[in-house]
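Retro notes (design track)

What went well: tokenization of the new backbones is finally stable.
What didn't: we kept losing track of which sequence belonged to which structure.
Fix going forward: every design gets posted as structure first, then sequence, in one message. First example under the new rule, 320 residues:
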């Protein structure tokens, strides 16, 4: 019989082969296996798993739930491989969080945010030193709105990921370790080209070299998602879309949701067979399957209304 360590190695290899990175999950599971060894346990039980997942009194509830889900996934694998493992009930340390309903920006709101990005508030003393920042924010927001790509995908781009002749952006090793090609509109390509030229001119004026990333800070370092989101929250507050100090509200990631919803609405309104086109949108967005794309139908009232209208029209046509 293989050891738990050997089985854990196989489990992680299998899931990584499916595209999961599992850095945090591996750390938690290796800690759990070490915990079982220390206890002299010969098998996984609900009591031992819950004890380890709960941790100290200061461990947050969401973290306890994440530990439990990681252990339960490993336990299910072991049961399938013939190991004696207790049936760990789902949701013992908390149910899965309900996915937040996205905020769908209107065209007017996107235009307002792009304008505010151009006029990002900079003091006179910092205006020249941070002159690239408005360009970076404006171009990043525009790219996310125009393509629906994930923020991390945009921030990981390099200059050679953009095919300027074909008008295609190559996204490498994204979520689930997938890579894909994203066609972009010529106007979007022009914006990217203008930003690259302005970025190169900015660093030439300061005599600096930037890191080999497409979107960088004014110091030449790769732009981080946390900083991009904080700057975007500043724009949201100036636009009146987010209250000062609010922990919830419209997000930068919602531009991706807006793209998906707008695409589906156009298809419905033009009378296209949306069901047949779902795999196309799922592939473009980099979803692991169409279920992630169908989620928009149940969480967006506008799409539900459009789908209902389309269905009613078919029924009426059939009645004739």
């Amino acid at each position: 019989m293989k050891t738990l360590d050997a089985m854990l190695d196989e489990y992680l290899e299998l899931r990584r082969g499916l595209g999961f990175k599992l850095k945090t999950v591996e750390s938690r599971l290796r800690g759990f296996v070490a915990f079982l060894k220390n206890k002299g346990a010969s098998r996984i039980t609900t009591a031992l798993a819950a004890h380890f997942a709960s941790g100290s009194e200061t461990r947050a509830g969401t973290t306890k739930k994440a530990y439990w889900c990681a252990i339960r996934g490993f336990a299910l694998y072991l049961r399938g491989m013939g190991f004696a493992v207790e049936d760990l009930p789902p949701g013992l340390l908390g149910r899965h969080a309900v996915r937040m309903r996205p905020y769908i920006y209107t065209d007017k709101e996107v235009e307002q945010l792009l304008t505010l990005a151009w006029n990002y508030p900079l003091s006179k003393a910092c205006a020249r030193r941070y002159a690239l920042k408005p360009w970076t924010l404006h171009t990043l927001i525009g790219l996310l709105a125009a393509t629906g790509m994930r923020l991390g995908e945009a921030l990981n781009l390099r200059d050679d990921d953009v095919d300027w002749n074909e008008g295609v952006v190559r996204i490498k090793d994204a979520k689930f370790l997938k890579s894909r090609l994203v066609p972009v509109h010529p106007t979007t390509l022009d914006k990217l080209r203008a930003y690259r030229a302005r970025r190169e001119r900015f660093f030439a004026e300061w005599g600096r070299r930037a890191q080999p990333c497409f979107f960088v800070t004014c110091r030449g370092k790769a732009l981080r998602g946390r900083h991009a989101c904080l700057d975007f929250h500043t724009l949201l507050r100036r636009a009146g879309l987010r209250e000062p100090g609010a922990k919830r509200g419209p997000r930068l990631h919602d531009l991706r949701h807006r793209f998906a919803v707008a695409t589906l609405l156009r298809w419905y309104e033009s009378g296209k067979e949306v069901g047949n086109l779902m795999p196309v949108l799922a592939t473009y967005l980099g979803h692991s399957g169409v279920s992630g794309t169908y989620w928009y139908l149940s969480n967006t009232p506008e799409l539900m209304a459009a789908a209902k209208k389309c269905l009613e029209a078919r029924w009426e046509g059939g009645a004739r």
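Added context from the reviewer: The chain has a mean pLDDT of 86.
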